[in-house]
Specification:
The complex is a heterodimer of chains A (about 400) and B (about 650). Chain A has about 400 residues and is of the alpha/beta class. Chain A is built from eleven helices and 17 strands. In chain A, the strands form three sheets. In chain A, strands 10, 11, 12, 13, 14, 15, 16 and 17 form an eight-stranded mixed beta sheet that branches. In chain A, helix 3 packs parallel to helix 4 and helix 8 runs parallel beside helix 9. Chain A is elongated, with a radius of gyration of 22 Å. The N and C termini of chain A lie far apart (about 55 Å). In chain B, helix 7 crosses helix 8 and helix 12 packs antiparallel against helix 13. The longest helix of chain B has 20 residues. The chains are: A alpha/beta (about 400), B alpha+beta (about 650).
Chain lengths: ~400, ~650
């Protein structure tokens, strides 16, 4: 057995993975070697490029890496999907050179189209970088990204570094099938996916009064951000990334509009640490590159006072500015101290603040007052968000 | 005519608090709610004109705190208190404390509560009032010979019980003198070992009994009427599940006799409110007094439907000093009413309590005067683990029993709850049970027909094909959207071991599903996210509950819930292999099925366990439950400690 076509453990080959990832309409092979398959197909009817790589008995040769780099360089802005099983490169200079070439092409493509990776095996050292260049990573149960000791080339036990890592946009799944199906759901939430389905409003809003019950009268209680998002998002559905600190990133559609969502979580009472700020920066950058708006659901007591977090805060503020993204900040409970800079960014290109009646903003908790922005009740939340997103659409930033 | 109260406090929560408030508001009476911290935003709090906090979540520190409730009564300036059911409703001390505080009690006088509060006393009072009581010996038995003599007098079979008994210990059924002698010795030693008390008593054992009760209503002037019977035999572990009025087992003569005895008992204790006299009924139509509930019963709505009376209104009027407005001959029973208790519990996991947020809560349309939903929750509400699991009562009314059952089945199909587990599917299945439908059953029906847990019937044949078609069309609409219009999408639907290959073509009218040579035309206004799929298949009306989690679509109706995975044909080919990779058995985590408190661990880190082994004990909804292993494993980490509050779905333990 010498090719990438066979995952020995599961007896599934690279073509099988692509079969599984793409729609029933099939896919077209655009390149192939013993180590990889390049293809074009569709997910949810939307055009996608894909490369399946790995699980060969020998390191990937430079030629295969160059072929993949050539494939990645293709014109168009179709999202790129990478299915990565266990694979590695040797210590030969030409292999590193080819790998660098591929990494450069990936980073260029990332500017014009989303890159999604499914990691189903252990990727060591430089190969792990391939996945790290993806915007979003779906991990199967055996998927991990690990460093290698540069001197001995001895593999570092990957458990502690096993993925997902805090701060990245990633999801972990119990099986390979679930990881690939999860990737299909993510692809379907990207801009231009389901283009013809945008209907401006969600079909089932249920009881909008339920917002009030979610909010509750006890403002010291955290509002369950998943349930809040369920009431806001189209179809009551969304994709959530592994949480970092007191924040979690989501992808959803609201009023047909694909959006990134940053929501305070109950973990650390919503406080932002370096990992949370890093994840926020990645989501902001991703949304900015692909013309998506961002919604922040804020219940944040502040930023953890350490150097790493403060550095992360500076990076996030820069990301808001650099991305040119439009953002709606919904202050659900509070935004204290540096939380305002992180999640209510005046540095964003277009910024609307909304807040619930009991919300408070301030440098210090005790001195916090009502935010400057539009006061909305819980039950008005969805309509207000849909209308504001539509206004962004009418006057693009 | 005495004027009714100006303002009343309802010393309860949940559906009964809301139900009492509805009547009070109709009568122009202002309402006051009380709440614990767990109910701060509960429906009954928002519904009341005023609401007062009475304490922290545990009932003993809030809804059972008599002095605090009296304090609130004074603060709010209420004229009277309605206790609902449970909590303080049958506490003499509460009724007396209100009397001393000069506040009315919308319930019977304290002496009547006291007389009926003790099982031995109430049986003696009942016997003195000429009410049939279970033949037996209320004293303790000294010897086996004495037991045989008493059993011979009572008639076989008999039950020998431990005076201090509970949980079935020391309890034996004997069908002959020989069995009595043997059972007495065994029961005595078992009772001594279990309770440190070897006293025994004996009474007639009613084979395959039914539980039938009579509603009575009395005033302060000695007038008492009965409002017919309620059949409450459909029970699970002594908890009523379905109730109906009238009983399919009771004829006019029997009703008259049971009613007369119930009224006699009520008269004997000077009863002056709504109350219920419960009887155990043999299959030979013999009936014996069980106990009297000196309060409003959970199942009172079925009586209200067939009599046309509002029992809460009658209680308020009587408590305000009005005489009864009806004589016995004015009471007419019309039609048939059935009640299903909708509870936060998981029948498929041995009816474990469930708690959490109601992500979806949709009730059937109540516009019809044949349907009533008594509930105390709304979509988005939190169902706390601390209190009774009853969420709602679904009551239907029709001319005949069969029609009322059909209305129940339809209404349960129109009842959608997501976020917590409920018994709705179980109730739907129960309404299809032939024994229930025939009216020939006993209190053992659920135990005999279902055992300890409910396993939904598998969906097969034509029904499975229809569900596969609905799931596939729903998947295409949600995932592919109009982009796929008029383009056939090839799919495979997996349901357990079954695989159904089909294609779906969306069109303006809906979808066409091709199943081999067969073509189905589906029309529905369903849109992704809605909890009901209501439409037609080849012109025939179809109504299904639908929910989607990731790639699995679950469809339910008539108690059959089917989870279908919609894939491409190639995905279906590969699914088993790809789904088996990694941890195919689950996450390697023991997850709490509900909100509660961890009582104790039964394993330590490093322990090996086998499927079925007990792992820990949780307390929720006033019950302790043992969580058991579903497969073999080794404990790698315990994530919670005894005494910890546990959220639903929280990881309790990790294992390899």
């Amino acid at each position: 057995m010498t090719s990438a076509e066979t995952n020995v453990a599961a007896a599934v080959d690279a073509r099988d993975y692509l079969d599984f990832a793409f729609d029933a309409s099939g896919w077209k092979r655009l390149g192939e070697s013993d180590w990889h398959v390049c293809a074009r197909g569709a997910i949810g009817g939307r055009d996608m490029l894909a490369v399946a790589l790995g699980n060969a008995d020998s390191p990937i040769p430079p030629q295969a890496l160059n072929d993949i780099a050539h494939f990645v360089r293709r014109d168009g802005n179709s999202p790129l999907l990478m299915v990565l099983t266990s694979c590695e490169v040797s210590n030969q200079p030409e292999q590193y050179l080819a790998l660098n070439h591929l990494l450069a092409e990936l980073s260029l493509r990332r500017k014009r189209s989303p890159i999604l990776a499914v990691v189903l095996g252990s990727l060591i050292g430089p190969m792990a970088m391939l996945a790290r260049l993806a915007d979003i990573i779906c991990f199967g149960p055996e998927g991990s990204l690990a460093l290698a000791d540069a001197v001995t080339a001895k593999r570092i036990p990957s458990r502690n570094e096993a993925s997902p890592q805090p701060g990245e946009l990633s999801c972990a799944f119990a099986t390979d099938a679930a990881a690939l199906l999860g990737l299909r759901r993510i692809a379907n939430l990207l801009p231009a996916g389901l283009m013809s389905r945008s209907n401006g409003d969600a079909p089932d809003r249920g009881n909008d009064l339920a917002f009030e019950f979610l909010a509750g009268s006890d403002t010291s209680q955290h509002v369950d951000e998943r349930r809040l998002l369920q009431r806001i998002a189209d179809d009551r559905s969304f994709v959530e990334f592994k949480s970092s600190g007191g924040l979690r990133g989501y992808l959803a559609r609201i009023g047909g509009e694909p959006v990134g969502v940053l929501a305070s979580t109950a973990a650390m009472s919503g406080a932002l640490d370096a990992a949370a700020l890093a994840q926020a920066g990645k989501l902001v950058g991703f949304c900015g590159r692909h013309d998506m708006r961002v919604i922040t659901l804020v219940d944040c007591p502040g930023v953890v006072p350490d150097d790493a977090a403060l550095g992360g805060l500076a990076n996030l503020v820069t990301a808001w500015t650099d991305s040119g993204v439009a953002v709606i900040s919904l202050v659900v409970r509070k935004a204290i101290g540096a939380a305002a800079a992180a999640l209510m960014p005046s540095s964003a290109a277009d910024h609307v603040v909304m807040h619930w009646p009991d919300a408070r903003v301030g440098l210090l908790k005790d001195a916090a007052g009502a935010p400057q922005g539009r006061l909305i009740s819980g039950r008005e939340t969805r309509r207000a968000l849909v209308e504001t997103l539509a206004s962004f659409r009418e006057a693009p930033v | 005519m005495t004027s009714l109260f100006r303002k009343i406090l309802i010393a309860n929560r949940g559906e009964i608090a809301c139900r009492i408030m509805r009547t009070a508001k109709r009568l122009g009476i202002a309402t006051v709610a009380i709440y614990s911290d767990a109910d701060r935003d509960a429906a009954h709090v928002l519904m009341a004109d005023e609401a007062y906090r009475v304490g922290p979540p545990p009932a003993a520190q809030s809804y059972l705190d008599v002095s605090r409730i009296i304090e609130v009564c004074r603060e709010a300036g209420v004229d009277a208190v309605h206790p609902g059911y449970g909590f303080l409703s049958e506490r003499r001390a509460f009724a007396e404390a209100l009397r001393e505080a000069g506040i009315g009690f919308i319930g019977p006088n304290p002496e009547a509560i006291d007389a009926m509060g003790d099982k031995i006393t109430s049986k003696r009072v009942a016997a003195e009032a000429g009410v049939s009581v279970v033949p037996g010996y209320l004293g303790t038995i000294a010897t086996a010979e004495e037991a045989v003599r008493i059993a011979d007098e009572i008639g076989y079979p008999v039950m020998i019980k431990a005076s201090a008994g509970g949980g079935g210990k020391g309890m034996r059924i004997a069908h002959s003198a020989g069995e009595v002698a043997e059972s007495v010795e065994r029961s005595r030693s078992e009772a001594a070992a279990s309770f440190g008390d070897d006293r025994l008593f004996i009474e007639k054992f009613i084979v395959d009994p039914r539980h039938i009760e009579i509603q009575v209503l009395g005033d302060r002037y000695g007038s008492i009427v009965h409002l017919g019977e309620r059949e409450c035999s459909i029970q699970r572990r002594n908890q009523k599940v379905l109730e109906e009025s009238p009983s399919p087992f009771v004829d006019a003569a029997m009703r008259s006799e049971m009613g007369a005895q119930a009224v006699a008992l009520a008269r004997a204790v000077g009863y002056d409110s709504a109350g219920t006299v419960e009887f155990v009924v043999g299959q030979d139509r013999s009936f014996y007094f069980l106990e009297m509930n000196t309060r409003l019963q959970v199942e009172h709505p079925v009586t209200e439907f067939v009599t046309g009376l509002d029992l809460v209104e009658e209680m308020i009027r009587v408590a305000a000093g009005e005489p009864l407005r009806y004589r016995q001959e004015d009471i007419r029973l019309n039609g048939w009413a059935i009640e299903s208790r909708i509870c936060a519990e998981d029948p498929e996991r041995g009816f474990l309590p469930s708690a959490g947020r109601l992500d979806i809560y949709r009730t059937p349309d109540e516009q019809s005067d044949r349907l009533r939903v008594d509930d105390g929750v709304r979509e988005g509400d939190n169902v706390p683990a601390l209190y009774d699991p009853l969420i709602a009562k679904l009551v239907t009314y029709a001319e005949t029993r069969d029609e009322a059952i059909e209305l129940q089945a339809d209404a349960l199909d129109d009842y959608a709850i997501e976020g917590i587990s409920t018994n709705i599917d179980f109730l739907s299945d129960l309404h299809r049970n032939p024994k229930w439908r025939s009216g020939e059953f006993s209190t053992a029906l659920i135990a005999n027909e279902y055992g300890a847990r409910f396993e939904p019937r598998a969906c097969a044949g034509e029904e499975l094909l229809l569900r596969a078609a609905v799931a596939a069309s729903a998947h295409v609409a949600a995932f592919y959207g109009r982009m796929s219009q008029s383009v056939p999408i090839q799919l495979a639907v997996l349901c357990g071991e079954a695989r159904i290959d089909l294609s779906v073509t969306l069109d303006d009218a809906g979808a066409t599903v091709q199943l081999g040579d067969r073509s189905l035309s589906l029309a529905a206004d369903w849109r992704s996210g809605q909890p009901f799929w209501r439409g037609s298949i080849d012109g025939a009306a179809v109504r299904l509950k639908i929910s989607t989690v990731d790639d699995v679509i679950t469809l339910a109706r008539r108690g059959q819930r089917t989870s279908l995975r919609v894939l491409t044909p190639r995905q279906a080919d590969l699914f088993d292999r790809l789904n088996a990779s990694g941890n195919a058995h689950g996450t390697g985590q023991l997850v709490s099925p509900l909100l509660g408190v961890l009582v104790r661990w039964m394993v330590v880190e490093g322990d090996r366990f086998s499927a079925g082994d007990p792992l820990c004990v949780l307390e929720a909804m006033k019950m302790e439950m043992v969580l058991r292993a579903e497969r073999d494993g080794v404990v790698t980490h315990l994530d919670a400690s005894p005494g910890n509050s546990i959220e639903a779905d929280a990881v309790l333990m990790r294992f390899a």
